[in-house]
Amino acid sequence: MKIESFLKEVPVFETERLLLRKVGLTDLEDVFEFSSDPEVAHHMTWEKNSSKEETLANFLQPAIEGYEEGQSGVWAIVYKKHDKVIGTCSLVDWSNEHHKAEIGYVLNKKYWGAGFAAEAVKEVIKYGFNTLKLNRMEGGCDIDNFGSEKVMLKLGMKFEGVLRKNEFIKGEFRDTKMFSILKDEFESTN
Predict the structure, then answer these.
(1) What backbone torsions phi and psi does residue 23 show, to the nearest 5 degrees?
(2) N or C: which end of the chain has fewer CB within 10 A?
(3) What CATH number should be reported for the domain holding residue 114?
(4) Tens digit of each residue's pLDDT (9 = 90 or more) over 45-87
(5) Helix or strand or coil: residue 139?
(6) pTM of the model
(7) Are strands 136-142 and 100-107 parallel, antiparallel or unpaired?
């Protein structure tokens, strides 16, 4: 079965501190809070959002519309204690043929360094291996995004190397550090 079939019904995951669910229009305020932060946007491929309309048009609306066709693997990361969306976690650039997908995530800077990103991404990795039957999950980060690198290493992902000047972001070519974990590696540690 194709990944898109599963993503038409994005499942809800719950951890000790978090709820992962589809993003919705009611999340606009929380998503704009972190997507308008220049520190958060610095390492991302997108510019900081200048307005809620921009967040709605460039992120929320496409994600919501993508659920219908199975083209959106986006989860809102909700901190249960505050009932607040503190970030998102996504499956992107998947391949049915090669049984692999890339993970992406972004977190409100007020919640950096507390293990929230790793807690959320672990659930999506489990879903990728156990339900989607993927063989490989990969992730990349800007060469100087040490926080993101730390998340991937904490999850048992292995550093594979640097893709040199592989993306044109914010007016310059930037290097990307690549990490991955294979299904058998994940199973042996979880």
Answers:
(1) -80, 155
(2) N
(3) 3.40.630.30
(4) 888 999 999 999 999 999 999 999 888 899 999 999 999 999 9
(5) strand
(6) 0.94
(7) parallel
